[in-house]
Design brief:
Structural class of chain A: alpha+beta
Distance between the termini of chain A: 28 Å
Number of helices of chain A: 9
Oligomer: homodimer
Largest interface: A-B, 71 and 71 residues
Largest sheet of chain A: 7 strands, mixed
CATH superfamily of the largest domain in chain A: Formiminotransferase, N-terminal subdomain
Order of helices and strands of chain A: EEHEEHEHEHHEEHEEHEHH
CATH architecture of the largest domain in chain A: 2-Layer Sandwich
Strand content of chain A: 15-25%
CATH topology of the largest domain in chain A: Formiminotransferase-cyclodeaminase, Chain B, domain 1
Helix content of chain A: 25-40%
Chain lengths: 314, 314
């Protein structure tokens, strides 16, 4: 079963009853599994995480738009997180049996529906982008809701779908496809912020480091230590283990050791399988040897596995 | 959903059509997923791997006995692997949401049925054993089918269920509960068999090494190297990473490095998650942060997750 993960960011983080309604709209969609939810009061923003088949996820996203367009008014919305719309961002992420192409197709399909039904302009971003300058989300979001009407007068900011002016209350939405993003922090056994910053500069792509790493050095005042705080934007091509080893090596350069590290949010299991393969030198191992993967695959055939589609090693 | 894995060892490894029938008997059981099968001609033995709820797995095992007792005659069976019965061994192994107690209860329930329906004597082994001398499978199997009638005259070898004499053609069966067993081999960049043997002796429990490791040194003639071949009998208490590190350290003692390593068969994902935690120093990480685990959990609620049983971090 090709499952797709969806992590919509909604511009409402203070009215718990309203966020409940959004979560219910997702959870009651047949075939959709709500996995996580979080709200941030200062950001005035909520994030839902759910998964299902492409068709089921599409229905859930549209149910969410139905609710959010009716209830959120960006003209009254003030939070510290940048945003352009009531449903600000909708990324689709391929899980085990789904491809990036599945997610790109889904982004376009949902984008068309959103523009048609609610007259909300839609920008396709990252892997789903149809123009290179719209790949980075930060470019689309630059100027925010307040600057949107002005921005949309320019040719290069005509939306991919929908009207050429913002929806009065719901603004616009960025809908896209991307790899799972892993938030990964490494804590150092030191309080020297300069060391964390130098290590961050060494490992991040923008200043000469690894291709799919964004990094910054930050103090953790309550623990009296510093942290290299990172986003890994493609863990298949820049694996966690290599990032860890490079940070460890750079820290040693300053006589500093690693205290511990942390993965934030939900992590795809193959990122952890790859880590085990790396350290144990499991050169011939693949995810198909993971018992639970095999079981999920057998279950996804819907009927119990027939003996004929099980390989016979001998 | 509490899933139980079952890996019956059947004394038939040469008649492919017959093994097909056994595999079909399992695969057509509702709620049971056949994950793997393998047959070995010189052992004259086949192993099926399947999983399901306790009830479904019980039905599949009894369907297998129905077929095997009717078709396998131990009096005509000659292979290099020791065996006492047509269905020689039936281990039940707890997967993610199941407990060892679930597996012990299942072993006793299935054992009673087998003894009642087909008059096959049953010995409960490992975690399901009711007497300490029957915990090790090798003790139950000592003397094999040919010595069974004689052995069963002794008080200490009365079966746990069923008649006090072997079934004429089907012998007896060992039915038990155990942790997943991980077959793990580390290949050394040397052809010195003495080094592999010394390392095996250093790491295995029987000669002073780690508690849940069995090990031997073997040559891999075709690759011109040697291997430390191991069984890890409880990977939660003696984790793979610690075994790897100890072997690496012992190898360095002889100036030898590790070429690669290999995990044989199906590996529980938490063994790999633990490995990643170990090397990345992920002190606060747990399996509940694995996206697929969260998804499986949500799916196992059968209906899509309600927003109320998803935790709300903020």
């Amino acid at each position: 079963m090709a499952l797709i993960e969806c992590i919509p960011n909604i511009s409402e983080g203070r009215d718990a009853a309203l966020v409940d309604r959004f979560a219910h709209a997702v959870a009651r969609t047949p075939g959709v599994y709500l996995l996580d939810r979080s709200s941030d009061i200062s950001h005035h923003r909520s994030v839902l995480t759910f998964a299902g088949t492409a068709d089921a996820v599409a229905v859930a996203v549209l149910a969410l738009f139905e609710q959010a367009v009716a209830t959120i008014d960006l003209r009254q919305h003030h939070g510290v997180h940048p945003r352009i719309g009531a449903i600000d961002v909708v990324p689709f992420v391929p899980l085990e049996d789904a491809s990036m192409d599945d997610c790109i197709a889904l982004a376009r399909r949902v984008g068309t529906e959103v523009a048609t039904r609610w007259h909300v302009p839609v920008y396709l971003y990252e892997e789903a982008a149809m123009q290179p300058h719209r790949r980075p989300l930060e470019q689309i979001r630059k100027g925010q809701f307040e600057g949107l009407a002005e921005k949309m007068r320019k040719d290069e900011w005509q939306p991919d779908f929908g009207p050429a002016t913002p929806h009065p209350s719901a603004g616009a939405s960025a809908i896209g496809a991307r790899m799972p993003l892993i938030a990964y922090n490494i804590n150092l056994a030191t309080d020297r912020l300069d060391v964390a910053r130098k290590i961050a500069a060494a490992v991040r792509h923008s200043s000469g480091g690894l291709r799919f790493v964004k990094a910054m050095g930050v103090p953790l005042a309550d623990r009296g230590i510093v942290q290299v705080s990172m986003n890994l934007t493609d863990y298949r091509r820049t694996p966690i283990a290599r990032v860890f080893e490079l940070v460890k090596r750079e820290a040693a350069r300053y006589g500093v050791t690693i205290l511990d590290s942390e993965l934030i949010g939900l992590i795809p299991s193959d990122a952890l399988v790859h880590t085990a393969q790396y350290y144990l030198q499991l050169d011939a191992f693949s995810s198909s040897h993971v018992l639970e993967s095999r079981l999920r695959h057998a279950m996804s055939l819907n009927a119990p596995a027939s003996p004929d589609n099980v390989k016979q090693p001998l």
